[in-house]
Each structure stands twice: as C-alpha cells, then as structure tokens.
Automatic annotation (TrEMBL):
UniProt superkingdom: Eukaryota
Alphabetic keyword roster: Signal
Signal peptide limits: 1-17
Identification of the protein by name: (apollo) hypothetical protein
Keyword Signal: yes
Length: 171
C-alpha cells in the first residue's frame, strides 16, 4: 500500500499541473488536498487500494513514469492493443462493485468520474493516457473515502477532501 501512495505523490509532484474537471481558482481546498505535503492515501482505510504493485517498478528516471502507469493499467486488464478500452474499464468497475460492496460510493464516484473519456480531464494533456486514468480513479476513489485513520494529518486531509468534494459538487 505504501508503494501506491508514494507513486501518486511522485506523480503529483512530477506532473506540476493538476487540472480537475470544472476546477476554478477559488477551489483552493482541491489544490491544497493534492499538494505533495498533504497527499497521503494511507489516511484512507480501504480494501481496494492495492497492497503491492511489485510487477510494476517505479522508474528512477522521471521521464519513464509513463511506463510505470502503462504497467499498472495493463495489470487491471483494461487495455486492448495498448489502448484504454472503455468496455473493459466498465467491466473493471463492475468487478470492483462486486469485490468491494461496502465501498460502493467509491466505485460509483470513480465510474462516474472516469468512464466515457472523463479521465482525460484530470491532469494535463502532456501526460500519457494511462497516467490520466490512474490519477482519475485515485482522485475519485479518495473523495469517497468512508473510513479515515485517526491522526492530526489524516484529519486535515479528510477536511480538505470534503471541501474539495463540496466545491466540485460531488455530494
């Protein structure tokens, strides 16, 4: 699980520009939430966040991060001929819903926020499609976290997630 969180943090800090759907300048809570100092997925207690992605190694060269995201997405079996397959992505969400019934809100939010090409809206267009899909699924799942670890840091992250969710109309 720590690997996943580290990866997202690395990605956020290396992507420089994070653009959420319908993001406006006054939505500081969203900007703050995804600031590398606050981003801490370990605060969200969830069965769905993978414990280990050891098949997909984080490259030392930042320019090769796309290879990592391609590996992660390929492991989820949502690609056809190295392209994101919307039909397979829908099947993936269907399986998530079956595997994690207690986290239905997370699945629904990710499904709604990422299907039909909506994942293209989440980070700048210079990033590879697989990175954009990964980030979209992460953000939408995180916004619907139902169980948070108890700590000052996690309380702060939870507050920013709720504020961001409110300004994004994700009630």
């Amino acid at each position: 699980m720590v690997v996943t969180y580290l990866i997202v943090g690395l990605f956020v800090t290396s992507s420089n520009t994070i653009v959420l759907a319908d993001m406006s300048e006054e939505n500081g809570a969203c900007d703050t939430l995804f600031n590398d100092m606050l981003l801490d997925q370990t605060c969200c207690i969830s069965e769905r966040f993978p414990e280990d992605q050891s098949k997909c190694k984080i490259p030392e060269d930042e320019d090769k991060m796309c290879d990592f995201y391609k590996c992660v997405v390929a492991e989820q079996n949502v690609l056809t001929d190295d392209e994101i397959d919307e039909g397979k992505l829908k099947e993936f969400f269907d399986q998530w819903e079956k595997d994690y019934p207690k986290e239905k809100a997370m699945t629904l939010r990710a499904r709604t926020g990422c299907l039909n090409g909506k994942y293209l809206e989440y980070i700048n267009k210079d990033n590879c499609l697989e990175a954009r899909l990964y980030f979209c699924m992460y953000i939408n799942s995180f916004m619907e976290c139902q169980s948070w670890k108890e700590s000052d840091r996690c309380t702060k992250v939870k507050e920013h997630a709720q504020k961001c969710k409110d300004v994004q109309g994700m009630k």
